[in-house]
Amino acid sequence: MLNLNSAFLNGTNILNMSIEEPQKRAADLTRNYERDLNIIEFCQELYVFKEQAPLLFGDTEKANGFYLLLSMIYAHDLQDAFSNTCMALRFLLYLQAMNEVLAN
């Protein structure tokens, strides 16, 4: 089963958390993927994302899934600005799909 700590990476949860909470969870997630994610950049991205997402995307509460949030980032051509966030979302999408395959 997908770790619930990664559920912070959706529009609703990020916006409803304090500034520190997504950064703490990002640091925890990054420890599992040290070769792929930069902890400092990822935490900075989430800080910027939390503050700017409502202005950039409008209603981010509609982005309640990893795929929807990733799609919104790509639709606005922000994948370079949020490269670690995109990588983490792709990891989580893969893990979510594998969990579903293995459950069946």
From TrEMBL:
It comes from the Eukaryota. This is Uncharacterized protein.
